[in-house]
Prior knowledge:
- By secondary structure, this protein is α+β, with helices and mostly antiparallel strands.
- The protein has two domains: 22-204 and 232-286, Cytochrome Bc1 Complex, Chain A, domain 1, CATH 3.30.830; 309-490, CATH 3.30.830.10.
- Helices cover 47% and strands 16% of the residues.
- The chain has helices at residues 5-8, 21-27, 70-77, 90-111, 119-136, 144-151, 177-190, 196-212, 215-227, 241-245, 249-259, 275-286, 333-346, 352-358, 393-409, 414-430, 435-449, 454-464, 467-477, 497-503, and strands at 28-32, 38-43, 49-56, 155-161, 166-173, 265-271, 309-315, 320-327, 363-372, 379-387, 483-490.
- It has a six-stranded mixed β-sheet with strand order 1-2-6-3-5-4, sandwiched between helices.
- Helix 3 (70-77) packs across helix 11, helix 4 (90-111) runs antiparallel to helix 5 (119-136) and helix 15 (393-409) packs across helix 19.
- The longest helix has 22 residues, at 90-111.
Amino acid sequence: xxxxxxxxxxxxxxxxxxxxxxxxxxxxxxxxxxxxxxxxxxxxxxxxxxxxxxxxxxxxxxxxxxxxxxxxxxxxxxxxxxxxxxxxxxxxxxxxxxxxxxxxxxxxxxxxxxxxxxxxxxxxxxxxxxxxxxxxxxxxxxxxxxxxxxxxxxxxxxxxxxxxxxxxxxxxxxxxxxxxxxxxxxxxxxxxxxxxxxxxxxxxxxxxxxxxxxxxxxxxxxxxxxxxxxxxxxxxxxxxxxxxxxxxxxxxxxxxxxxxxxxxxxxxxxxxxxxxxxxxxxxxxxxxxxxxxxxxxxxxxxxxxxxxxxxxxxxxxxxxxxxxxxxxxxxxxxxxxxxxxxxxxxxxxxxxxxxxxxxxxxxxxxxxxxxxxxxxxxxxxxxxxxxxxxxxxxxxxxxxxxxxxxxxxxxxxxxxxxxxxxxxxxxxxxxxxxxxxxxxxxxxxxxxxxxxxxxxxxxxxxxxxxxxxxxxxxxxxxxxxxxxxxxxxxxxxxxxxxxxxxxxx
Length: 505
């Protein structure tokens, strides 16, 4: 199933005692404040805990061309504190921060000159920047946010940036909800993006660890770039190396101002709460944050693909394969059908790819994802696989296409439909969600799908799908001209020059 669809199997029965979609609909309480902040709540007294989540519609897809990677960078920076948290004396620290910005901008401008840059000037500016960063340490209290939350019994204090959004998460005792509201509202009102250039180096290292030195990361990045030639879904969330190198605090503050507005966010609180008291609490701390003009949605549409695209990534690792087909996003009916197709192909050991490719020894693994890399805009249906030696990526690719062709010409039998639907229903019951799981999913569907009640409609749509729908959708999207294929191949060893010379004599 697609990345977001993978969460759906957790939903309809996630609440204690919930036995139908109507129960869930009755339990979710929505409230919108005058500044546009949407609040979804579920009162659930199974434990004295609460999961408050905030999702901002601020992903890498929202970045400008001169600030690629800024959404992810800003997520890092918002753990650095505020005018009162993470600092011993902000008034004095502020003077140092301004000097750091001045030197950092000058250093970036000089480095951007490339071969024409003044090496002596760069060295001088680097020394000045280092000195000011050392001076700033006198005022910084590192990790104070984490320390406060830990001291008050929290878990899961974290954040994550995707192509579509950035989400901030935590779980804590329900009697600490007011503390959370105070801390998080202060983070929005008074954020200080301190240690920017230090953290920028940390992000560069993160990219090296997660992308540049990982075969899967390299393949994914090149595959997505090939699949999306116009739409910003083709850009890496963390940014290209040259993008990261030119990020600065001014760009981050501008992105923060535009995208972290209350009317561009969704707050979800699930757990041991009182609805009326929670509304008053959130109004007290977040109600005075001003709304902003909503940022424009991405208007670029990916042009229809007019021929197969193939890329190879050379890496000293075992081969991998990715195949992607362009498709519409939610709530298009074909997206529901592709969820069903994904389940048929790769949901469990009775799925078609497992039975016909993995069990046959052609691949170590073969899986599908519907809705890649995001869901706000049209996206991809992706098949990824790892060959089992001595089979090659070409062998696996051929086997995958054979399974996709069957979906076009052979109606799915009723017993297979029943198996998939049974698995869906079993998943609903088996995976009773935590407060955190429910909070994340409500935030996602309200913020990205536009209505959390998409959750309620999904299972019903699964039951409406027919064998004819499966064949039609497979024929429509699983075509050669609509696919992008990425393979990871082992980099061939280069013989020393002397050996090559001897071989040519």
